[in-house]
Amino acid sequence: MARIIVITSGKGGVGKTTTAAALSMGLAQRGKRTVVIDFDVGLRNLDLIMGCERRVVYDFINVINGEANLNQALIRDKRCDSLYVLPASQTRDKDALTREGVERVLNDLGDNYDFIVCDSPAGIEHGAYMAMYFADDAIVVTNPEVSSVRDSDRMLGILSSRSKRAEESMEPIREYLLLTRYDPMRVANGEMLSVDDVQEILSLKLLGVVPESKAVLNASNAGIPVILDRESDAGQAYGDMVSRYLGDDVPHRFLHPEKKGLLSRIFKG
Amino acid sequence: MGLLDYFVSSRPKTTAGNASVAKERLQILVAHDRVARDKPSYLPQLQQEILAVIRKYVEVDMDAVSVTYEQEESHEVLELNIILPESAAARGV
Ligand SMILES: Nc1ncnc2c1ncn2[C@@H]1O[C@H](COP(=O)(O)OP(=O)(O)OP(=O)(O)O)[C@@H](O)[C@H]1O
Ligand SMILES: [Mg+2]
Question: Is A15 in the pocket of ligand 1 (CB under 6 A)?
Answer without folding.
Answer: yes
